[in-house]
Amino acid sequence: MAAALLLLLALFAHHPGRSHAFNLMNYVCNNRTSYGINSTYQSNVVSLLGSLATNASSSTVGFATETLGAAPDQVWGLALCRGDVNATSCASCLSLAPNITFGFCRGVRDASIYYDRCLLRYSDTDFLADPDAAAAAAAPVPFGVNKDINITSNPGQYVGLAADLIGALAGWAAHNSTRRYAAGVITSGEGFATTNRDLVYSIYGLVQCTPDLAPGTCQGCLGRLRDSMPRLFNGTSGAQFTAVWCNLRYEVYPFYDGSPVVNLVAPPPPAPASQNTNRTKGSGNAGTVMAIVLGVLVVVLASAFIIYIWRKGQAKQYPKEDEDAGSLLFDLTTLRRATANFAEENKLGHGGFGAVYKGFLPDGREIAVKRLDKASAQGLKELRNELLLVAKLRHNNLAKLLGVCLKGQEKLLVYEYLPNRSLDTFLFAPAAESNPLLDWETRYRIIYGVARGLLYLHEDSQIKIIHRDLKASNVLLDADMNPKISDFGLARLFNGDKTTTVTSQVVGTLGYMAPEYAVLGHLSVKLDVYSFGVLVLEVVTGRRNTDTCFESELEEPGNLLSYVWDHWLKRTPLETMDPSLDCQAPESEVLKCIHIGLLCVQENPADRPTMLDILMMLHGQEASFAAPSKPAFTFAYSEMMNSEERDNVSGGSGNQRAAAAAAVFSVNGMSVSEFQPR
């Protein structure tokens, strides 16, 4: 028995990283009876906890009940995971229950444990016999609250709006969800002041019942918790009311995953009643005084506005770079709190710059924090470059930079959070993991959106920019799978109309770099066009440009470009289309994108279209396009780098680029180049 308990605790041991992902909100140890250590009842509890975690996480509704043993050591149990939690997180959350069971509630025969993303109860009495009756008698246990932020203005109105949201969610969860779960938001036009001096306009909430409750019982259970909200409200901005059969929570930030199913807009507060509804003889005098005051105020404001416009005309057209950077500075403490001190479970991925973490700002905004690796070759120059460039850019197809933090060895960039991460995670997923979100309509929209973003950078923004590192991993996707170009650390700014130069510092990603740039350092907007062409062909085929499997499909070693070109010459370009698209993709659009991709990767930069030409072609007919010439085959790239060096390269002296030239245009791919990953 002792061995079984030790094994369970070892398997369910509390890991430091998990504490940030699954917060313990409350627990109740019912001390009316107890059990002995190494007893049969304890053995049954050990088995029950493991069974509940397994069964709930494998259930489609994240819910399980279980009964083990025989009287007098029989034990009943229930486990429920929050409706937005996946199977892995469900199991991880429930695996924390033994910490309370054999810790704070050691020896107790009846305990309820509430985390923010799951709950569990076990008892020596059959509380499962009549869930509807138990839910009808449900009362909230002491609730967890957000003690960091208090509401300091109109607290009664605040909790009233929260209760309105919970009421709407309760109806939706009870009658429209098999999980008996709903999340939503209510927005007020009148902000609520808080202790951190921020104004709160939105309240986020969720409700959930156990899926075995009847709709009316679920709504009634949540209604009783909702009725307790005003009575137990103590000024805190967030709270969780927990009962075994139903629970609710509200906060000033979106603490749940997924889109809200309920969006409410609070009505404006009623106008204050008049102190005296009877007009008096003095009301006319008051109106006269008010008219005079308003007249003077208008004159003062008009004068101030004229002075402001005059001074603005004397100022420079653009602010200084340091002023731009200073207005976007974030405090390190804020970002540590937002990401739970860069907890592993908040890690979204890792790129050439460093790791990226998801976080929440105090005002509820979701953010993605890019943290520079201390050992990274990319440093302050690239980070400053990205900050100063992106701060000036505003376009729907560019990732929005919110700010930067430079503190000691910490170098951080803060972006808007895009829930679907980067295009490569969908595009190059194994066949068994193909995502239905990436259908042809979505792929075509991504191609079009990236083209719009590049056109803005090249021609429409107030500063002309060449991205220099466009690739699938630098195209982020929002909740609706709309593309946003990111990572401007290697971007190059041009003044005036000049957008060409020769550089001695070749940086970018092998396979996406145009040959004239990789070999000779010739930098122009046609570099981005080339990268865009490679990206388009990847989107159509679902294959990386550096895949080595092309060697078995071609008569000689090659890459994606040679593979598509070979089929183009054979008049079989549709055979290169991603097989997961089946017959859903219109052939005319697929052919159009393949044609555009081949035009973009032509060896002569002058033959490549501009981004404006490309957008016009996306609106036009493929039959009117010029015939593409043979692409600039750079199949030796994949042979020049090992698996860890295949991503980003920087530097490159004249001798190195000469060596690279020999590799790029040689058949056997021999090279002595020394490209270094960033």
Automatic annotation (TrEMBL):
Key word ATP-binding present: yes
Entry GO CC: plasma membrane
Organism: Setaria italica (Foxtail millet)
PANTHER family: OS10G0327000 PROTEIN, RECEPTOR-LIKE SERINE/THREONINE-PROTEIN KINASE SD1-8
UniProt xrefs under SUPFAM superfamilies: Protein kinase-like (PK-like)
Recorded superkingdom: Eukaryota
Binding site for ATP: 370
Transmembrane residue ranges: 289-310
Claim: Phosphoprotein is one of the keywords in the record: yes
Recorded topology in the membrane: Single-pass membrane protein
GO biological process, one term: signal transduction
Full protein name: Uncharacterized protein
Gene3D superfamilies cross-referenced by the UniProt entry: Gnk2 domain, C-X8-C-X2-C motif (3.30.430.20), Phosphorylase Kinase, domain 1 (3.30.200.20), Transferase(Phosphotransferase) domain 1 (1.10.510.10)
Protein kinase domain ranges (all copies): 342-625
Molecular-function annotations in GO: ATP binding; protein serine/threonine kinase activity
Keywords (A to Z) from UniProt: ATP-binding, Glycoprotein, Kinase, Membrane, Nucleotide-binding, Phosphoprotein, Receptor, Repeat, Serine/threonine-protein kinase, Signal, Transferase, Transmembrane, Transmembrane helix
